[in-house]
């Protein structure tokens, strides 16, 4: 019991490491040193300086190059890039964010929205010769990017764009790098030429000189202290008629000629906007991955503590009881471990899909769009999970959990904003649900609620049953397992998947009906708003189903029998605990009898009993090396383990 | 709509302010200045110094005296003391904790466990001439106080106690004041005399000299950075054979004579232990109150922001929509406001009960015990609420919510440990449930699981129906409202209360049955542990019922019709959202039909619609003055309110 370091753990870790397992293994060695860990005793100015130093070390490791195409000086391995950077999250989330801003967001904008004329910047940004920031969000508009207020007005007299913040709410805000380090910003602004607004475009705008002073017309501010992420210098930028050459427009999808005439291969402005944003999908993929990594660190710490810490005597034996042996503690932590497993498989699957699309190996025109929806959904699932899991871990470690030296509070503080940045979770869940309701119809993809609700009211309900290969998957599993139709056996994967798919279908269909019915009575916004909780539930159900599918796919790839059997139990717990959480819904909508719901609750208890002896194996499988846990209490056996 | 500052808000505020409303009003004026606010830019050393300075100012205000009896130099107003100190939480939670440690915990130990011979200390600790700390928790034992390891061994040769930390896990830990400021500690230790362990007692032990250096045999350590509460100097204390005079034993309930003979008026050691701990109930009462105060500050900020911040256009009007007008946002915040109202009434009721017991106006021998159970339960409910509400508020304010200047992250970080200190919430919920199961039987009150399960197995089930006046209350309400028996109308208070009481009764009764059945098969610990989730649910249901009763009582005292009608809707939302949360349970146990559960969900939506126009009135009623909100974004209308 709890011997750990078993070959079962190794097999499971290999499975959870996914397609870029070698990248993870390499990173575990490269990043284990003290020089990459966060130092919570530094004030935020010093923390920023330290992270910048860490960045300089990392920039020599060949990690950043993976994210860029060969013609741009990279190695063209997006999957390896996201995976490798994710490992920084084990060391320090400030470092991960800083790297993500520089190479992912700023670098990604130049790489994906720019053309040859911007190529010169990429080598410089990889090597950190050029430090950049990604200036999209404004104080007045974050989720609603289409309505940001910064303008980029073309002046044919000088062949320049004039960047300007016309209102107080137009200031760029929360921008990582804007407070201190960035010399250049990828600025999103309304492009105006010939007196006409062409919508949101991105331009490169120098903001500081070599000495770090604001350039003329640019005023930067420091966002100062935040809930966490002290090593990231978030700030504000206000532009007062700042001029940049016309060539600074990142012109992959649209360009302005010297005479001010505007051209674009994408005629529909809404589609152009979403194509622009869509190239930035890697950010959302990465945020979800890093949040889940943070949750794995926290769970690794909390479980190991619960395997050492004792409290109250067992009267049957006289020995003090390990926290991990309490039912309530098992119910706190094991379902979160199960969800971490599920999300790890889902993330690996997502990164693989992203890699295939971004390396041109998947040319299906639907693939990019499907990738965006999946990335949005998994960003929600993983960041929500991280918030919940890390909170639970802190509480499960009591007073020790509150000491910074035991790291949980830092993980909590650093990841807290992950539910917000790269897309607020409520807005993203809604986005996922809208896609479901409109069945990927391009013409309603803009965020205008009016057009969308009108479309949904006519289309949805007819199309909902068409999408996704889930029915095929269920059938395949039934065939494979030679299952007779035992609809009642929730331990069968096909039954589990059917239940998840039924919930999703029902919620999508009924949300569509409700929208249609209400839209006639009230205005479309009112109709939409009235059904918002229903729509969000549909989005969540979809995400849950995707995650389960990924878990099931992942199970099939585990060759070692012991490891697979253990993972099967973990998958069952993921399903049972999620069904338990939603049991009111399942009963109320007649997908589950009261008796079965009670059986599910008992099932959760049985599963946590079943998994108890493998607690250490499970956290070892999650793949956070002990050297990277950095929780003082785990090194202090004499104090906590009195057995 | 949203005009605010209405007389309705004033009436509601008066109701929520409770019996010591004048104390709250006075504190709102006294504490509004910058000098009492936290300064998040200070490092923790400076933050501690600042809080100590604030304490010195407060010690001149007459606030601390209220907590002590007249014969000890106080004014003998425990209700006013707890209420007045709670208001410090609006200013800064570090300050509140520091005051609570000095006057509540340390002062409370001397006042309640000491006798005349310790009176000299009280005047000095009120004035801060003597700074103290409360050294109960050890690294190895927090929840299980009965098994702490520090020893106080009487040496008749010198008429002294020898205080000692025999093991690494015996070190005192997380002790507020131990790192820097405290000169004396109220140390809980196993009292040994004549070679016999007499159980846990409390002694006063000087730990530092006037210059702040550790006294001989005492070694203090700094717990360093924590998740929050930077102004509190938590630390560790290790004792190496430290000698104190015999008279330093706080000897109200037990004493040791010069010859080493031990005497106590309370013969049963277990009852003596619980009597000792019971006198400290004010700590739990206070923690719950301060946590709820923190939640009110956060909700006041988040709601005001949602009434200014807009995002996405309403296509029906072209105007950007206020966050507060989104259904999802209403569902996020209004149920939390409703719970804050409920808990405010419950806290006022608790403080009033405490006041009556502690001033000798309530001499019912059951009152102290009932008070302890209620304080434990409300500590759980309020701290859990704070954790959840403040998290939700942070997320509801997006990126702005993550900036320290908007205060929500500080509230989150500072309150996070409230679910742990003064009793871990899981352990306290269990304590409440055990009391229910054993129906207050003194003889099983010790924490020994063996005896307890044996008792529960024979007694529970028979006694569960006897306790509490809830049935009387329901009947009274039925009579008052001239209700015919319409069991189905959940808008009736009697039906609501019946539903809550039914849930509690059922859970307690079935937990008892389950224990009885299992105890025969397995050992008692195994039986208990197997049913732990069930037992915890019973405790939670009890707490929910108490809170609802307090809300209903509070409603009856609101004389203004508009105010009362509004509060009635808030109470409905409290009930509906709580029933919605537990709807799976209600359906599964046949207390509610599927149709009614669906109606409850619709009811929540209708109630948030109903309350939307009164959002500002509701937060004004919560009584956090605008001057104490200290969220920069609320002062920055040009950026966020673009109407």
TrEMBL record, chains A, B:
Signal peptide: none
Annotated keywords: FAD, Flavoprotein, Oxidoreductase
Domain Acyl-CoA oxidase/dehydrogenase middle span(s) in chain numbering: 133-242
Domain Acyl-CoA oxidase C-alpha1: 278-437
Domain of life: Bacteria
Essential cofactor(s): FAD
Domain annotation Acyl-CoA oxidase C-terminal: ranges: 496-632
PANTHER family: ELECTRON TRANSPORT OXIDOREDUCTASE (PTHR10909)
Family: Belongs to the acyl-CoA oxidase family.
Protein name: Acyl-CoA dehydrogenase
Species of origin: Nocardia aurea
């Amino acid at each position: 019991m709890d011997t750990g370091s078993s070959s079962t753990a190794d097999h499971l870790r290999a499975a959870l490491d996914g397609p870029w397992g070698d990248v993870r293994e390499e990173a575990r060695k490269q990043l284990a040193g003290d020089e990459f860990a966060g130092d919570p005793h530094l004030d935020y100015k010093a923390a920023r300086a330290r992270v910048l130093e860490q960045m300089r070390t990392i920039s020599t490791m060949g990690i950043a190059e993976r994210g860029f195409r060969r013609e741009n000086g990279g190695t063209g391995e997006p999957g390896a890039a996201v995976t490798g950077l994710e490992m920084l999250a084990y060391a320090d989330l400030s470092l991960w964010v800083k790297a993500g801003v520089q190479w992912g967001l700023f670098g990604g904008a130049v790489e994906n929205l720019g053309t040859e004329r911007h190529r010169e910047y990429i080598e410089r940004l990889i090597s950190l010769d050029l430090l950049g920031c990604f200036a999209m969000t404004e104080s007045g508009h974050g989720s609603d990017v289409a309505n940001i207020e910064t303008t980029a007005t073309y002046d044919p007299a000088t062949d320049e764009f004039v960047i300007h913040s016309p209102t107080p709410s137009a200031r760029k805000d929360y921008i990582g790098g804007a407070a201190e380090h960035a010399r250049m910003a990828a600025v999103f602004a309304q492009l105006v030429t010939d007196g006409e607004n062409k919508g949101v475009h991105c331009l490169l705008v120098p903001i500081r000189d070599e000495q770090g002073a604001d350039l003329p017309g640019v005023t930067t501010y420091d966002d100062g202290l935040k809930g966490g992420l002290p090593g990231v210098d978030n700030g504000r930028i206000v532009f007062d008629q700042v001029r940049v050459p016309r060539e600074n427009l990142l012109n992959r999808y649209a360009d302005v000629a010297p005479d001010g005439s505007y051209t674009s291969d994408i005629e529909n402005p809404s589609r152009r906007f979403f194509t622009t944003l869509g190239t930035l999908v890697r950010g959302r993929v990465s945020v979800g991955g890093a949040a889940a990594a943070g949750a794995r660190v926290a769970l690794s710490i909390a479980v190991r503590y619960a395997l050492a810490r004792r409290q109250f005597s067992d009267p049957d034996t006289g020995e003090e009881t390990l926290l991990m042996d309490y039912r309530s503690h098992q119910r706190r932590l094991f379902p979160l471990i199960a969800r971490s497993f599920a999300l790890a498989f889902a993330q690996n699957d997502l990164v693989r899909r992203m890699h295939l699309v971004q390396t041109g190996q998947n040319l299906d025109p639907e693939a990019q769009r499907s990738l965006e929806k999946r990335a949005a959904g998994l960003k929600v699932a993983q960041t929500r999970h991280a918030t919940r899991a890390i909170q639970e871990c802190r509480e499960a470690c009591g007073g020790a959990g509150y000491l910074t030296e035991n790291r949980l509070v830092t993980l909590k503080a650093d990841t807290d904003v992950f539910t917000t940045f790269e897309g607020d979770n409520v807005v993203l869940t809604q986005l996922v649900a809208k896609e479901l309701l409109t069945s990927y119809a391009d013409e309603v993809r803009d965020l205008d609620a009016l057009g969308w609700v009108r479309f949904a009211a006519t289309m949805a309900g007819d199309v909902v049953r068409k999408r996704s290969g889930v029915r095929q998957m269920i059938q395949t599993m039934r065939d494979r397992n030679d299952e007779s139709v035992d609809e009642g056996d929730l331990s069968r994967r096909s039954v589990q998947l059917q239940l998840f798919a039924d919930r999703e279908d029902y919620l999508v269909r009924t949300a569509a009906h409700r929208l249609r019915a209400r839209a006639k009575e009230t205005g479309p916004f009112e109709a939409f708003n009235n059904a918002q909780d229903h729509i969000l539930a549909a989005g969540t159900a979809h995400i849950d189903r995707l995650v389960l599918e990924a878990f099931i796919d992942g199970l099939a790839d585990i060759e070692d029998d012991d490891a697979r059997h253990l993972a099967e139990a973990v998958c069952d717990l993921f399903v049972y605990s999620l069904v338990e959480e939603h049991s009111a819904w399942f009963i109320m909508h007649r997908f589950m009898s009261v008796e079965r719901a009670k059986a599910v609750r008992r099932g959760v208890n049985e599963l946590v009993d079943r998994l108890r002896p493998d607690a250490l194996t499970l956290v070892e499988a999650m793949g956070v090396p002990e050297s990277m846990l950095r929780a003082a209490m785990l090194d202090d056996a004499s104090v906590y383990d009195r057995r």
